[in-house]
Amino acid sequence: MGQTYRVLKIRIPWRLVEERPDVLDLAVRMRLAAEEYVRRLLKEITGQEEPKLTTEELDRLLTPDRRELARRIIEEVFSKYGLGRCFVKQAKTFWRETAFWRAIPLNAQLRVENEKDVSRAVFVDLRNEILKVRKLGVQPFIIRLRRQTVEWIRERIEEDARLRLAFLGIERQKGKKGPTYGKLYVALVFAREVTPVEPRALVVVDVNRLDHGVAVGLLVDGKLRQTLRLIDRDVIKTLRRLHEEISRLEERAARETDPARRSFLESRARYLKSKRYRKIRGVAEQTAGEIVKLARKHQAAVVVDAMDYETYSARKQSGESGDRKHLYDGLGQLKRRLQTLAQWYGLPYLEERLYSTICPRCGARMVEEKKRIMRCPACGFTDHRDRVPLLWAKRRYWELLQKTKQPAFSSTPTTVTLLTS
Ligand SMILES: [Zn+2]
Asked: Which residues form the Cas12f1-like TNB domain (predicted)?
């Protein structure tokens, strides 16, 4: 058994933020305090200024004997940011969680029917479709929940998940004159006990570029049973159009001499960029959902072709992909979502380098004969480029299946990414 987590991020409406500068101020102080606490704690433990740690490494470092150290740092740091007793108490109790999530956990209650309100800081009332935030030393505020949000929570309850804790969060944008703090949200962390599935098959995913679609193969008993290409042509078309429009606006803004006109063009470009971002997020969400559904149906482990990071960033920045750069943006998101979703359902998740240019029959380097059709000069093997990684997975089936059986579960959040419903 292990704990898995999914996070729902609920945006605080802009109007409320404008009316309540005290909420914005509090969220900024909470974030700065949490970050400083983590930085100081890790520096004391590792001796390094900004250690890059994986969740597993962090898990090993935060042993019970570090608790007093953590508590002392919390006392010192939190008072500096004017955070009262309730925050100190929460952070001390959840000193490990505070470090993992880099945010101060708030206690939370979910009311599904008529349960008694037990005065937690975050109160999610499904029946009245509202969320209350209170007891934080500022005037309470209420967010109305969207239908979609309520449905998402109900689905999690049906999966026996429970609301474990919440965060008041704020997004930070990197700017030329230092960071600026913008959108506010409340994040709800749902936890679920899960028994890891003993995999009986593999679902292999080759992600390379959004507009080529995502190639998926189902492998059972070492045979490629089914291949799918997940792609939504309409969305791809929309993305391309958005991209062209953004580029045009940015070019015009760069040439524009009138400051007012220029700022108008820039804000229009920003608006379209966030629209594009939402679209990409939508594609990643839907695709991950379909892949995990297939994996659950066949009790399969999810194996993702891990393009190595250098190839990924080179492609993202290269001239070849200059105008297609945005099509790589969704890939990291897709992987994170796949991992979170697979773990949520107890399915093993593995990232593995699978070749797309090396012949799966004889191992020779292949050449691209026609657009995306690969051919092996040594043995004559030929197939679509996106199928090659799937054939490699077929060839390595038993080894990969064995690898996915090694326990990768820990009781700590594996991804600290915040997912929206
Ligand atoms: Zn060959």
From this structure: 332-387
